[in-house]
Write a structure and sequence with these properties.
By secondary structure, the protein is of the alpha/beta class. It has 16 helices and 19 strands. Strand 3 (about 40-45) and strand 4 form a beta hairpin. Bound molecules: flavin-adenine dinucleotide.
Amino acid sequence: PKKAIVIGSGIAGIAASIRLAVKGYDVSVFEKNGYPGGKLSEIRCGDYRFDAGPSLFTMPQYVEELFALAGRKPEAYFTYERLEKVCHYFWNDGTSFVADAKPNQFAKDAAFHFNCTKEQIIAKLEQAKFIEETTGKLFLEQSLNDWRGFLNLATAKAIFRTPKLGLNKTLHEVNQRSFDDPKLVQLFDRYATYNGSSPFQTPGIMEVIPHYEFNVGAFFPKKGMVSITNSLLKLAEDLGVRFTYNTPVLEILHDGNIISGVRIQDDGVVHADVVYSNMDVYFTYHKLLKGIQVPQKKLEQERSSSALIFYWGINKQFEQMGVHNIFFADDYRGEFEAIFDKKQLFDDPTIYIHISSKVKKDDAPENGENWFVMINTPPKGTINWEEYIENSKKNIIRKLSVALGEDIDGLITCEEKLFPETIESKTLSYQGSLYGTSSNSKYAAFLRHPNFHKKLKGLYFVGGSAHPGGGIPLCLLSAKIATNHAPAVS
Ligand code: FAD
């Protein structure tokens, strides 16, 4: 059979390996780390377990699809449940709000807590659904660089002109048009961070994001987020895919404009008919491709935000918190200006806390909780991170101690951390960005790197830095689009 090599075992690399194996390729995956999953892995600290990166699981159908494609029952590998509460929100003035997963209940509760009606919330979720139905397939499920994929160019242009898509407004502006209550505007503005962007810059079309959380659902895998990686890895291995760890690919080899294989550390050259790079496109060009023109414009686009995360083992339980918790900044615009314009951390940051032990009890000792405490940050840049981390930790602890009426510092029994420099060094994501390039422009979708190389036959790109972008569902879709382009195995 034809040979395929996948560079990297991030979620998109594993998904690509499964799809290629199903197509009949003989597939090898080379991973530089000693473990699979890239950002979607886990860490341990004392008696606590943490999912290292993603914590929100949406659009599980794209995971299930891989099992179906391979003719396997998903339940044999992977189980998950829908969360009953989507998020617990807290503001500095003492207000709090729990968003119910059922759209109707969410609308009812919001009308009670905020200055809005139930109908306004329902209309907002309907609008999100409308955008998904109008553009979802077009932008996310096919290549934007192969016009045969569109119904036709004219249709695409007509869709773009539709005022209801909010392409000429920012997300913040469309949210302000929907609601008078600034807290509700802030709640809906936050969805921009789901792809590492700013609500004050990203286009109004991002109104679509709550559709995935409320109309489709927010889920949690029973064995933690890492079980998405582990179960797909098992499926790939069952299909005969070979994984080699601690083995960085050093060069992609080509014979003229035809891909011939890769060079790896000790073993030299490995031949292949097709190569799928799950390495960030920036580093794929700069580190692995020799004598190939670098697409400067694509690679120099603004990167998505990065993050500072503290993994804290906490020896107390907090009834007022849930699986997902947000402690908002007062000055949201100021926070995003700091991240994207000034490239600084903000003194009163919005804090996200994920507590998987609320549903997966064995992630923390009895009476304890595993806190994944994250703030959004600029990409790596030239910041002195050691100094910033110390300052941020003080600000975070101060803010949480006031909000929860408890000295949080005294409850931390163990600590690990992750920040832009270590995100970059661990997963080779340029600048430590979480989601590849940002979506701060309405053209972002068209400026992302396509899933194939236009000149080098047999080279493909999957993962958060390629089309259609970052986040687990989109990474899985990148693998689907890229492998649809793979030549058939005769
Ligand atoms: P990556 O995870 O970036 O992995 C790439 C892999 O390739 C790595 O294992 C790396 O070691 C390997 N590699 C790179 N170069 C080479 C080489 N030359 N040779 C061999 N191996 C190589 N998404 C969500 O959907 N929901 C969330 O809640 C969410 N939260 C997030 C929170 C954090 C803190 C982070 C970091 C990310 C979050 N994301 C979330 C984004 C999501 O994690 C990513 O979009 C996704 O996991 C990226 O997958 P990927 O396939 O692009 O590869």
